Amino acid sequence: MNLLSVGASHKTAGVGTLERLSIAGPDIPAILQKLVAQPYVGEAVVLSTCNRVEVYAAVTGFHGGLGDVCNVLAEESGIGANELASHLYVHYDEAAVRHSFRVSSGLDSMVVGEAQILGQLRDAYHAATEADSAGRLLHELMQQTLRVGKRAHAETGIDKAGQSVVSAALEVAADAFGGDLSGRKGLVIGAGAMGALSVATLTRSGVGPLKITNRGADRAARLAEAYGATAVPFDSLDEALDEADLVVCATASTEPVLTAERLAGRSRQLVVLDLAVPRDVSPEVAALPNVTVVDMDGLAASRRALPAAADTAAVEQIVSSEVDQFLGWLRGAEIAPTVAALRTRADEVVSAELRKLSSRRPEFTDEQRSDVARTLHRVVQQLLHSPTVRVRQLAAEPGGDQYAALLRELFDLDVPHATQADAVPEIGGKA
After folding, report:
1. What is the model's pLDDT at position 307?
2. Contacting residues for 279 by C-beta, under 8 A, at least 6 apart
3. If we measure between CA atoms, which residue out of 326, 330, 324 comes closest to residue 392?
4. Under CATH, domain 165-305 is a member of which superfamily?
5. Per-residue pLDDT for 373 more than 50?
6. What's the rounded Cα separation, in Å, for the pair 220 and 239?
7. Percentage of the chain surpassing pLDDT 90?
8. pLDDT value, residue 401
9. Lowest mean pLDDT among 113-122, 175-184, 383-392
10. Architecture of the domain spanning 2-159
11. DSSP 35
12. What is the pLDDT of residue 28?
């Protein structure tokens, strides 16, 4: 099995493409099952956030695995294969490991250093575990990915500014209000993870009074109580909009929540931050007078979204070190079946010789036969011990896969999945 990551993010696709690729949480288990049902895909994890959709997979061949993943993404999104390919990035083996570690560390985020991605990765891994689509390889990758992300945030100051997509969006909104959000009347639509982060960030920024609305009233009420805000019924959204200066949209709706018809006729300035994918705000809203809309495309184009963290180099160093360690583990894991096959072959040879001895010397007692068997097994184990320990050590080093190949060749070992049917592509290459 080899590692493959395929995806699209704010770096390769606009929000229109990302919202078509976006996979709602309840739909992820079915997508995972569809992925692992493909011929070349053995394991799968799906990550879908407001600015990226990625598939991490363990595959038996690069080209076959890539084709399988792309076919599923194209079918689910309704995007044609040629159009989809122009928005995808593809990473293989070492590059896939490095990419996953950079994602968890916040290096690949729209707002560098944001920590929300760790929770999103944890949710993606949990969903794959529940769906039984993660095997040994992806279990190890995801566990190490989460650990590396935590280490990056704990050992460096990459997130010392507390930046997130919400805080970056608020900086853009502040410009529209002359640089100060204090005392602006706020409304958050949605009480999920992004909505909760929005409420917390708006509260710290001095926005208030603050109202929260959500289709599930109980969730809005709990969130409002936690932050001293006011929960309003979802069917009172229009009245809440009339009173608001700043609106943050962060729902999981598949249809626009705010339309041009709903917001027409504004007499004073309104800034709307659309942090949802698919979008909560209809594109026509941006053309309305007195209404400013900032969505993921606008945020990506702003200077706040550009990498600027002083600790980026330190995190990159952590990532590189952790990639080397993971690859060492991976190479050691890859040689394990070959070592096991060698020991099995040795046991088979010993057993065959003992059967021959039993036929030639029928006068041996059971005790004598046991003594001979133990001696033979002990000699073979001692002979194999040093070479097998050493080959595991060598396999953990760069280029270590050659030692497993040599063992298979020397002892004519038949090890399943020891060779790849597909040619190995350039690591990190784009399809």
Report:
1. 44
2. 15, 19, 256, 295
3. 330
4. NAD(P)-binding Rossmann-like Domain (3.40.50.720)
5. yes
6. 17
7. 55
8. 67
9. 383-392
10. 2-Layer Sandwich (3.30)
11. H
12. 96
Q: Is 115 annotated as a binding residue?
A: yes
Q: Give me the catalytic one of 3, 23, 50, 407.
A: 50
Amino acid symbol at 269: Q
> Is 109 known as a binding-site position?
yes
Output the six-digit token pair for 321: 């070190």
Where would I find the beta strands (DSSP E) of 25-76? Answer: 41-48, 52-59
Q: Which residues, in sequence order, are bridge partners of residue 383?
A: none
The tokens of 283 are what?
């594109």
DSSP state of 129: H
249 catalytic? Reply is no
Distance CA 78, CA 70 (A): 11
Exposure of 216 in the CB half-sphere (CA atoms within 13 A): 11
Report whether 143 belongs to an annotated binding site: no
Instruction: Kindly list the domain boundaries of the chain, sorted by start residue.
Output: 2-159, 165-305, 327-411
Alpha-carbon distances, residue 422 vs 60, 85, 373 (angstroms): 8, 20, 44
Confidence of residue 161 (pLDDT cuts 50, 70, 90): low
Asked whether the bond before 278 is cis by omega within 30 degrees of 0, the reply is: yes
Please identify which residue in the block is written with the tokens 């190490």: 144
Q: Tell me the per-residue pLDDT of 331-358, one tens digit each, with 9 for 90 and over.
A: 777 777 888 888 888 888 889 989 998 8
* CB count in 10 Å sphere of residue 133: 26
70 is in an annotated binding site: no
The secondary structure element, H or E, covering residue 28 is helix 28-36
Identify the bridge partners of residue 258 per DSSP, sorted by sequence position: 281
Which residue, 225, 215, 221, 227, is CA-closest to 189? 215
Residue with tokens 């109202």: 211
Whether residue 10 contacts residue 52, with contact meaning beta carbons closer than 8 Å, is answered with yes
Q: Tell me which DSSP letter residue 11 carries.
A: T
Report whether 393 belongs to an annotated binding site: no
pLDDT at position 417: 57
pLDDT tens digits along 246-301: 999 999 898 999 999 999 988 889 999 999 988 999 999 999 999 999 988 888 77
> Which pLDDT band holds residue 404 (cuts at 50, 70, 90)?
confident
CA atoms within 13 A on the CB side of 388: 16
- CA-CA-CA-CA torsion sign (118, 210, 179, 247): positive
Spatial separation of the C-alpha atoms in residues 390 and 367, rounded to whole Å: 35
Q: Largest Cα–Cα distance in the chain?
A: 108
- 116 assigned ligand-binding residue: yes
Cβ partners under 8 Å of residue 35, min gap 6: 41, 44, 46, 55, 57, 68, 69, 72, 133
The answer to whether the CB of 50 falls within 8 A of the CB of 277 is: yes
Contact 202, 170 (CB under 8 A): yes
